Amino acid sequence: MEAPGSLSPASRRSVELVDSLDGLREDWMRLAAESGNAFATWEWNELWWRHYGGGRRLRVAVSSQDDGRVDAIVPLFMWARRPLRIVRLIGHGHGDRLGPICVGGPQSERRALRLALDALPHDLFVGDWVAGDLDWAGVLRGRVVRQTGYPILRFPEGSWTEFLAGQSQRLRKSARNSRNRLEREHDVSYRSADSATLQADLDTAFRLHRIRFREHSGCLFCGDHEPFQREFAALAFERGWLRLLLMELDGTPASFEYGFMVSDAYFAYQGGRDPAWDKHSVGFVLELESIRRSVEEGATEYRFLGGEEGYKYRFSTEDPGLETVVAPATRRGSIAAAAVDTVWHVPGGKAALRRIGTAKASP
């Protein structure tokens, strides 16, 4: 077994640092299709770079086998050059479980990132919300500075009825009572966005999101980030990934669920509701409907994405977690990594680092 941080002779691949995404599309799409991660797709990363690259330099590491076939892409860029050369992953802030795009599982991912960082001169690598179950800190000789949950619901084989039968009696009763009460008191309907309604339905989703959360800092879905989200929604719709589900009560939109179905996995990206309907549990009822549709569509898992909100754990069957890892490559980088770790644990430090870690739209 390959020890953390080591590279076997067989893992020696040629690595090229590329400063443009244009020539990588075909290989990227091939590898992303096998990775099964919405945030590894060419469409997500290319669009994110156009919106948030901000004139920085791409340093995408492309690993090839002896026959020239690309077997890994690591989407890196130089986030800062002075006073430290800081390298980060494309998609940070908006995506979860970032990292190498390759096939072969965890060992291949570890190898790809090590090779990429070895090829790229830098002082500090910041890996935002990477997989918490791959021991990136050990592999890269770094340290974990942030952790959060990444709850996943893996569906057993069978129908929606069989899925419900596997839940606790208390949850089944709550689901049944919430739905029945809502349907008894109101005309309830569900509607998925289509080509004719997409833009209007996105308008509704953003409106419900604003009503639910009002003005709030750090949101990567609304405000300055709305153009990015709208553009990706259109791309995802074209690819058949988009799932924008709205619940209407008496003909009025009350809640929405927005996510992506990629490679038999549903990514629950954002939800929102009108707080006026909170006592009717519209969020819970719509979540159930979203899970039901995912099961019937053939999904094998439902990813609630990063965060430790209680509702994400009502159905989850596992939680591999997410981590932000800092890994130094030089003495200056080691000092900076220690400083980041220290700041994170002092009062106000978390808020400061979150501001540093938030993607900013390009001017």
Describe the overall structure.
- The chain has 363 residues and is α+β, with helices and mostly antiparallel strands.
- The chain is 37% helix and 24% strand.
- It is built from eleven helices and 16 strands.
- The chain has helices at 25-35, 42-52, 106-119, 136-140, 160-165, 169-185, 198-213, 226-239, 282-297, 331-344, 349-357, and strands spanning 14-18, 57-58, 60-64, 70-74, 76-80, 86-89, 101-102, 124-131, 143-148, 152-154, 188-192, 242-249, 252-262, 265-273, 301-303, 322-328.
- Strand 3 (60-64) and strand 4 form a beta hairpin.
- Helix 2 runs antiparallel to helix 8 (226-239), helix 6 crosses helix 9 (282-297) and helix 10 (331-344) crosses helix 11.
- The radius of gyration is 21 Å and the shape is globular.
- It starts with 13 loop residues before the first strand and ends in a 6-residue tail after the last helix.
Short description:
The chain is an alpha+beta fold.
What are its keywords?
single chain, 363 residues, alpha+beta, 6-stranded mixed sheet, 11 helices, disordered N terminus
The secondary-structure element order is: EHHEEEEEEHEHEEHHEHHEEEHEEHH
Indicate the radius of gyration in whole angstroms. Answer: 21 Å
Our estimate of the beta-strand percent is 15-25%
Span from first to last CA? Answer: 47 Å
Shape: globular
Instruction: Compute the average pLDDT.
Output: 91
Residue share in helix: 25-40%
Q: Spans with pLDDT under 50 lasting ≥5 residues?
A: 1-11
Class computed from helices, strands and strand pairing:
alpha+beta
The largest sheet has its strands arranged as 2-5-6-8-16-9
- Counting DSSP E segments of at least 2 residues, the number of strands comes to 16
Reported for the largest beta sheet, the result is:
6 strands, mixed
